[in-house]
Amino acid sequence: MNKEGTLVILLFAAVTLSVSAKRDTLKYRISLTDKIETTYSLQRPEEFLSGKAIARRARQRLAIDSTDLPVCDTYVRTIRDKGVKVIAKGKWDNFVTVSCNDTIKINRIAELPFVRSVEKVWTAPKRDKKKEGPERDSIVSEPYKLENPYGLAYMQLYLSHGDRLHKAGYRGEGMTIAIMDAGFHNADRIAAFDSVRIIGTKDLVGDSPSIYAESDHGMKVLSCMGANWPHAIVGSAPEASYWLFRTEDEYSEHLVEQDYWAVAIEYADSVGVDVVNTSLGYFSFDDKSKDYRLRDLNGECALISRQASRVAGKGMVLLCSAGNSGQGSWKKITPPGDAKNVLTVGAISNSGTLATFSSVGNSADGRVKPDIVAVGVSTQVIGTDGQPTTASGTSFATPVMCGMVACLWQARPELTAKQIITLVRRSGDRADFPDNVYGYGVPDLWKACQMQGDIPESAD
């Protein structure tokens, strides 16, 4: 080989090493002790909350407190100056997530006086499982018309009388729903979503050119609520507005995804979201030392559960999937389904029979879980080709119910988030004798809409 060829190879190797060196392989959650040096004030909430979020708190008589104050900028700068990249900031739990390649830098950060603890939440996989540039599926434009105005989706609304809410004019208008998921493949191209009010999107994972090119899971979840294809498939809240968040990295399973979720839920709060759907659950990780134990299902152990337990106190209603581990060795609900003051949703068939895969409760501290059940067996959804199809899982039972809960709140705007949670539980067909399989049972949301008298706030 001549000298010129050798020089090219050496240059290529140098560039390769340089690129490799820049790629961070570790991520850490840095938990902080306080917010003493914050420049924000609880007397000026408009600096960190939207007008809608402030009005929502005021209507429900909820205080804006120290958890709402952003993480201290001085602490963030000091951490960044140690040579790491800040990739997430969580104000409710007061943490900063960073990426780097050097554990020595992390050790120095751990010694800072305002750092409470440090935990590794991600290690780069030895082999990148992610494919190069996700391909978009082709759209099929075929007419599809059944006699029923709801088309194939009628039964999944009928079981909880969501159709009666719709008939009374409550189809989600004026309500804002956030979806935390793994991606929304083709949702920007499918005709059934043409009338869906998507008011914003955010990719917290941050490694994709578009949330619409990633997983189809979130798109199917959205279709359970937002699809509006009369006589083919109509969702449970077709007139609501939607925020779409990508928090789940489908190519690995690490604690850092809970950091992304934490940032997303805080953002949803800050922009004034009313109802949140999360069809995600965690109990087993690529790093097996991070796996949860059944005794950890107390609503406080997992970061995502701590965050979820705060949601109703911020004035939002959160619906979580129970999980699909009913037939496995785990069997139990998965965080954040163990959270307090949320509606954890199990799966049933159209006939009301529990899905064999639906995870069971109770929580480790004895609370009824799941809270309720909805259709999650052969749930009618939209496929990535734009045509109706079916999918099974508590992932789809949850949005079916989530949309109806949004419609219920539209009908009863005088109620608080915690009162809505109580109302939904009370309307269940097993409300008098809840168990760890069906929870409070199948809610009758038309009945809930009509309930009068004293409605206490959930106090999990």
Molecular structure report:
With 460 residues, this protein is of the alpha/beta class. The protein has two domains: 23-123, Alpha-Beta Plaits, CATH 3.30.70; 154-450, Rossmann fold (3-Layer(aba) Sandwich). Helices cover 27% and strands 17% of the residues. The strands form four sheets. The protein has a seven-stranded parallel β-sheet with strand order 6-9-5-10-11-12-13, sandwiched between helices. Strands 2-3-1-4 form a four-stranded antiparallel β-sheet. Helix 7 runs parallel beside helix 10 and helix 8 runs parallel beside helix 9. Residues 3-21 have low confidence and may be disordered.
The assigned CATH architecture of the largest domain is: 3-Layer(aba) Sandwich
Shape: globular
Strand order of the largest sheet: 6-9-5-10-11-12-13
Instruction: Provide the domain count.
Output: 2
CATH superfamily membership of the largest domain: Peptidase S8/S53 domain
Give the helix tally.
Answer: 12
Q: What is the radius of gyration computed over CA atoms, rounded to a whole number of angstroms?
A: 23 Å
Unreliable runs: 3-21
What is the fold named in CATH at topology level of the largest domain? Answer: Rossmann fold
Average pLDDT: 93
**End-to-end distance:** 74 Å
Helical residues, percent = 25-40%
**Strand count:** 15
* DSSP strand content: 15-25%
What's the short story on this structure?
Helices cover 27% and strands 17% of the residues. The chain is globular, with a radius of gyration of 23 Å.
Helix/strand layout:
Elements: H1 3-22, E1 26-32, H2 51-59, H3 73-80, E2 85-90, E3 95-100, H4 103-110, E4 115-123, H5 154-158, H6 162-167, E5 176-181, E6 197-203, H7 217-226, E7 228-229, E8 233-234, E9 241-246, H8 256-270, E10 275-278, H9 303-310, E11 317-321, E12 343-348, E13 372-375, E14 379-382, E15 388-391, H10 394-411, H11 417-426, H12 445-450
Parallel strand pairs: 5-9, 5-10, 6-9, 10-11, 11-12, 12-13
Antiparallel strand pairs: 1-3, 1-4, 2-3, 7-8, 14-15
